[in-house]
Amino acid sequence: MPIKFDENTRQFHLYNNDFSYIIAVYDNGSIGQLYFGEPLSPDRDHPFLAPLPFAGFSNNIRSAARFEYPCYGQGDFRLPAFKVKLADGAGVVEPRFEDYRVYAGKKALPGLPSTYTESDDEAETLEIILIDKPSHLKIILFYTIFAADACIARSVRFENFGKEKIILESAMSLSLDAPDSAWNTLAFTGSWAREFAVSDAPLHVGFQGVHSSLGVSGSTANPSLVFRRPETTERYGEAFGISLLYSGNFIACAEIDCWDIVRIRVGINPETFSWSLENSGSFDAPEAVLGWSRNGLNGLSRVFHRLFRTRLERGVWRDRERPVLLNNWEGTYFNFNEEKLLAMAKKAADMGVELFALDDGWFGKRDDDATSLGDWFPNTDKLPNGITGLAEKITAMGLKFGLWIEPEMVSEKSRLFEAHPDWAVGVPGRTRTEIRRQFVLDMGRSEVVDYLFETLSALISNAKISYIKWDMNRFITEPFSLALPPDRQGEFFHRYCLGVYSLYSRLTEAFPDILFESCASGGARFDGGILAFAPQGWLSDDTDAVQRLEIQRGASYFYPLNCIGAHISAVPNHQTGRLTSLLFRAAVAFFGDLGFELDPTKLAEEEAETVKECIAFYKERRRLFQQGVFNRLDAPPDCNTAAWMVSTEDKKSAIAAVYKLNAKPNQKPFRIKLAGLDRSKVYRVSLWEPTHRAGAPFDATDKRLNCGLRGGDELLSCGLLIDNTFFAVSITGDFYPELFLIEEAGEAC
Ligand code: DGJ
Q1: Is there an atom of ligand 1 within 6 Å of 678 CB?
Q2: Catalytic: 541?
Q3: Bridge pairing between strands 564-569 and 536-538
Q4: Candidates 3.40.50.1980, 3.40.120.10, 2.70.98.60, 3.30.1490.10; correct CATH number of 3-311?
Q5: Cα-Cα-Cα-Cα dihedral sign, residues 587, 589, 595, 600
Q6: Buried b (16+ CB within 10 A) or exposed e, 497-516
Q7: What integer pLDDT is reported at residue 49 of this predicted model?
Q8: Which of 2, 65, 188, 477 lies 20 to 30 A from 587 at CA?
Q9: How many angstroms separate the CA atoms of 609 and 686, rounded?
Q10: C-alpha dist (Å) from residue 241 to 46, 303, 416, 575, 678
Q11: C-alpha 554 to ligand 1 mean position (Å)
Q12: What is the pLDDT of residue 242?
């Protein structure tokens, strides 16, 4: 049983082989956090963990205690996990322990994404029930511990069982008081086309964190944080991470108090939130996942990857290999017609592409971004046979067909806006800010979601569509819903997010075989919430392979490779103007769901042959690339080299990629230690040496240093030798990739 309650100490112990999490019911009935980390014996109770005898409301003792779901206005002067306003205006409530339940498995969260179990032995759930009697407020804290990994899913439900209205002003999904402040925090920040930049800084006294008020989780910060000990590296040491499974406005923050306790909170951004709980009303806060590792940051990523890939992603595409696709966006932008698309598709099919995705510009009168969002019928000037006819022709070539949509949007110049101007978000009498010349539909209104479901269902049913790219290209301004009364406008953003989830779940249920890819100007809605509906996402509009090394690396801290859309685009790259070889671009895009973002009819013959070879190489190993165990590898910081690898769960096969960036003459040699291999085995190491190289050097300069039979121990503890001394290598130029293929060849003697 991974959850135990000890009646004497009143401690709950959630544990598995890798992790313990201990919660206490304090003397006054509030709930304390006692411990999380290395597993402690479940056969003993741990009374020594309790704080000094808990003396009611003495400020001093109370402040030094750690809480699970701290409330406002009762002597814990740190920021609370939730806040309410009662009918008399008071904000003070005292939710006290009432009861608890433990059961096998895990329940779904109504209307919200969540992790799940497939059989009851995969996890156990604890519900702690707290009651504030005077206000008739019930709070249920949910904790699910998974058997296989060091992670816990948490969520919170608020119920009003009285007659008076209770306004919820803040409702964190997770509040965690860590015992000391010796942590560095990794946040994942950026902007359009430079998402997932990793900032890594020591925690400092006071308040720090990230948030979104954009209406989506956003590209400026991801709703997830890593905490690592200062000495923790990718390979070794203690780290934990939190990730909110939510696609709207969030806050993820930490505060060090005068006792050196760190209070970490993650949940819906309280700045843009309030919720009215009427009599018998309830509110579910989104799920947050806490993961822990003693095996460095790679170990932590492994915990999240496994949970997200196998118990957050869902549907038939969860375990399927993802198709190699061609998306026409960078190849044509808005400038295409049927003939052009068919020529691109034909060439793509010849090279081994499996799916053709038609991006923006196929509907209404859309020739640029000024019109037609909302008019989801084909532009027959461009596509005389409509989507149905085009899909027919493309599928006849042996390709699957996919389509771009941006359902949450409306252009001012559109039939939809003419018919329903009131569906666009905005405050009556005030200017609506136009971003990318489009407005946002009020997804909190059920009639909007119904309309979109019917329109899109008809579109999808009438054509052979296997893939949908669901885009969202502007943030939300002037938040206001005509459908909400004045005292409920604080619900706007969360209702918007629930509307998006509702449309996603209706469409994915109606069309279970369609592969959905989420997108929001690249990675502005790349979060654990959306992953429950769309098992892959377009990570960034920056397709430059050198930039992608950083962006994909940043995303990899939480998100598994099979949810990362990674495309090879043309050079000069459209975002940076940089020139890189096709093989370099391919070697980066292999570590994700491979696709293309170019016009294949413009490829020279040698380039097309190179692409063909790359696709064939990827297809043979795509289960490994998409579902393998991923490890970020460390190259010395001054060596201008990036490296990462994937290996199979059983450690029999692996691929390590080494990317040499800006060439410098006569550099020091260095080693890159590998991961994900078995020390007791011998491996055969070879270099991928494609026949077609499209003009780029790919002459395996490190071959004689690294290839042949190597012990797992040597590869793990010594690593690959990267020799850049002037006489050791041929001159390769900038952006030189090497892919090492590693196959088990027997036991070490
Ligand atoms: C932004 C996306 O990230 C691009 O891939 C493309 O689909 C454009 N929108 C189309 O407008």
Answers
A1: no
A2: yes
A3: parallel
A4: 2.70.98.60
A5: negative
A6: bbbbbbbbebbbeebeebbb
A7: 85
A8: 188
A9: 22
A10: 25, 10, 43, 32, 26
A11: 21
A12: 98
Residue 200 a catalytic site member: no
Whether 215 is in the pocket of ligand 1, judged by its Cβ within 6 Å, is: no
Please, are residues 381 and 368 in contact by the beta-carbon 8 Å criterion? no
Is 630-747 assigned to CATH 2.60.40.1180? yes
Here the tokens at position 230 are: 């200062």
Type of residue found at 725: T
Query: For 212-244, how does the pLDDT look when each residue is reduced to its tens digit (9 = 90+)?
Result: 999 999 999 999 999 999 999 999 999 999 999
In this structure, what DSSP letter does residue 121 have?
G
Please state, in angstroms and rounded to a whole number, the distance separating the CA atoms of residues 730 and 699: 8
Of 526, 529, 521, nearest to 552 (Cα)? 526
- pLDDT at position 223, please? 98
Determine the distance separating the centroid of ligand 1 and the alpha carbon of 121, expressed in angstroms.
42
Among 1-5, 57-61, 206-210, which is the least confidently predicted range? Answer: 57-61
Q: Which of 307, 306, 305, 272 is nearest to 287 (CA)?
A: 307
Higher pLDDT, 738 or 47: 738
Of the residues 326, 360, 435, which should be mutated to test ligand 1's pocket, given the most ligand atoms within 8 Å of the CB?
360
Asked if residues 460 and 504 have their Cβ atoms less than 8 Å apart, the reply is: no
Alpha carbon distance 694, 585 (integer Å) = 12
Look at 146-150, 373-377, 744-748 and tell me which has the smallest mean pLDDT.
744-748
**Would you say 568 and 584 are in contact if contact means Cβ atoms under 8 Å apart?**
no
Q: Is 736 touching ligand 1 by the criterion CB < 6 Å?
A: no
Alpha-carbon dihedral of residues 210, 214, 215, 216, nearest 10 degrees? -60
C-alpha span between 734 and 724 (Å, rounded):
13
Nearest residue (by CA) to ligand 1, atom 1, is: 521
496 vs 519: CA distance, rounded Å:
17
Residue nearest to atom 10 of ligand 1 (CA): 360
Question: Would you say 11 and 24 are in contact if contact means Cβ atoms under 8 Å apart?
Answer: yes
What six digits make up the tokens of 102? 């433990």
The residues of the chain that CATH labels 2.60.40.1180 are: 630-747
Distance of CA 594 to the CA centre of its chain: 18
Residues 151-198 have pLDDT tens digits of 999 999 999 999 999 999 999 999 999 999 999 999 999 999 999 999
CATH pick for 325-541 out of 3.30.390.50, 1.25.40.10, 3.20.20.140, 3.20.20.70: 3.20.20.70
According to DSSP, the residues that pair with 358 across neighbouring strands are 403
Which amino acid, 339?
E
Task: Give residue 216 CA to ligand 1 midpoint distance, Å.
Answer: 16
Check residue 654 and give its pLDDT: 98
* For residue 312, pLDDT beyond 80: yes
Which part of the chain has CATH 2.70.98.60?
3-311
Report how far apart, in Å, the C-alpha atoms of 419 and of each of 374, 410, 411 are.
11, 11, 12
Structure-token pair, residue 521: 């100007």
The average pLDDT across 380-384 equals 97
pLDDT in tens, 653-702: 999 999 999 988 888 889 999 999 999 999 999 999 898 877 665 555 66
Q: Which residue has the tokens 């944080």?
A: 225
For residue 404 and ligand 1, the question of a CB distance below 6 A is answered with: yes
Helix or strand run (H / E) with residue 568 = strand 564-569
Give whole-number Cα distances, 451 to 441, 497, 504, 648, in Å: 11, 17, 13, 45
SS3 376: coil
- Where in the chain do CATH 3.20.20.70 domains reside? 325-541
- Tokens for 714, please give them: 């040597």
Do the beta carbons of residue 75 and residue 157 sit within 8 Å? Answer: no
What is the percentage of the chain residues whose pLDDT exceeds 90? 88
Strands 467-470 and 515-518: parallel
pLDDT digits (tens, 9 = 90+) for 627-649: 999 999 999 888 899 999 999 99
Which amino acid is it at 616?
Answer: A
